[in-house]
Each structure stands twice: as structure tokens, then as C-alpha cells.
Amino acid sequence: MKRNTFYLLIGFTGLVLVGILYLAIQLSLPILIQGAFLVAVLVLYAVKRTVAETVEDERTNVITQHAAVATLSVFWVIFLLVSLGQVVFSFSTPLGFHLPPPPSPFAPPPDNALHLGRFGLAQLGLLGLMIVLYGSFRIYYARKFGDWESDEE
Amino acid sequence: MKNKIRVHRAMREITQEQLAAGLGVTRQTIIAIEKGKYDPSLSLAFRIARFFNVRVDELFLDDEPAPES
User: Fold this and answer.
1) Which helix (DSSP H) or strand (DSSP E) does residue A15 occupy?
2) Residue B9, domain extent
3) Distance from CA of A110 to the nearest CA of B (A)
4) Which of A94, A123, B1, B41 makes a 20 to 30 Å CA pair with A110?
């Protein structure tokens, strides 16, 4: 398979996954998107092996290594910041260290599903940030180690 | 680290593409090494030297100042 065809396949798979996510939300069936995502990742990894014209040499590996280490160095700080904020929120609620308030007929019932959903959204945001960080560091190190250098030949 | 890969390539009239194919690396890597943007691993350095049939120290020049004794 050609490299561009592989990139098209990734885009198409992404679109299908968005559709399945919508369906899973409509059916309130998380296993649907989880299963589909797992299968999609496995298929893409398998197809990636058949992609021609891909030469990965030691410089590519060095760029990947540097970008990964730099991403981790920054990301753990951001991850801890967000987690600390969430811990404060968590322990400030009636289920945390504070005593629960007296029962009120006007208080809404606890909605654990909503909290889990927000947790998932926060995780998605962090994952998106991690991808952006990794991409940026990859570009930085690729430039540092001579990618996009032109030559007279 | 400075190197004489470009000189040896020119002497043998080999393009960067041909050298890259012979070594199993990308042309970008050859460009980066020639321009001193990337120092190859020992393994790749020996492979390049073998390709040109020269010694490694004939190909790569250490431009670090020698430590004072």
C-alpha cells in the first residue's frame, strides 16, 4: 500500500469512528465505541506494516526519542496540575472531607454518570494536548536534525 | 562533527540518493550528516566508511578542542 493511501485510510477510519461514537451516545452503549476504536487501531497497525516507501533510519528514531522524552517532561507537569485541581474539587464536595449537608428537597440527585463523562472529557483534552505537544516537539527536533534541509543535488 | 562524505561522494560520482540507498537510510539523513546537523551512530559511521572503502577517522574529523592536560 502506498503511503498516501494509508493516510487516506486513517482519515476515513477517523470519520467512521466519529459516526460510531455518535451511535454509541444515542444507544448509551460505551462498549460500542471502545470495541470499534480497539479494532480500528489494531487494523491500522497491521496495515501500516504493508506501507511501502517508508524508510525509518536511525535519525528518524533519534527524532522520535527526543520528541517523546520532551513531551513526557512537559506533560507530567500539566497532568499533575490538572489532577491536583480535580483532587481539590473532589475533596471539596460532600463526598469528600466535608460533612454532607442536611438533605434538602430541592437538591438535585447525584449524577455519577455526568461526573464520569466530565472526567472522560478532561482526559480527551489532555490526550489532545499531548498529541499537540508531541507533534510540536517532533517538528522542532526534525528541524534540529536536518529535516527539510535542501541541497543542490 | 565535520566529515568528508561530500568529497568522497564527489570523487566517486555518487549521488546522495545512491549513497542513501546503499546504506539503507533516507537521503535527508545523508544531507543532515554532510551538513553536520546530525552525527551518525558508530554503526552507521562504520557502514559509510566501508561503503567508501576508507577508515572512519579519514571520513570523520573531531572538531572538539582537545582537553587540557
Assistant:
1) helix A3-27
2) 2-59
3) 58
4) A123
Query: How would you classify the pairing of strands B60-61 and B2-3?
Result: antiparallel
Q: What is the pTM of this model?
A: 0.73
**Shared domain check, A8 and A47:** yes
Q: Within 10 A of A47 (CB to CB), how many other CB atoms are there?
A: 15
pLDDT digits (tens, 9 = 90+) for A30-47: 999 999 999 999 999 999
Query: Which value does ipTM take for this structure?
Result: 0.77
Could you tell me if A147 and B28 are in contact, meaning their C-beta atoms sit under 8 angstroms apart? Answer: yes
Nearest neighbour of B16 by CB, restricted to A58, A147, A153: A153
**Domain contains A106:** no
Short-list B58, B54, B4, B57, CA closest to B34: B4
The alpha-carbon gap from B67 to the nearest alpha carbon of chain A, in Å, equals 27
Distance CA A60, CA A72 (A): 18
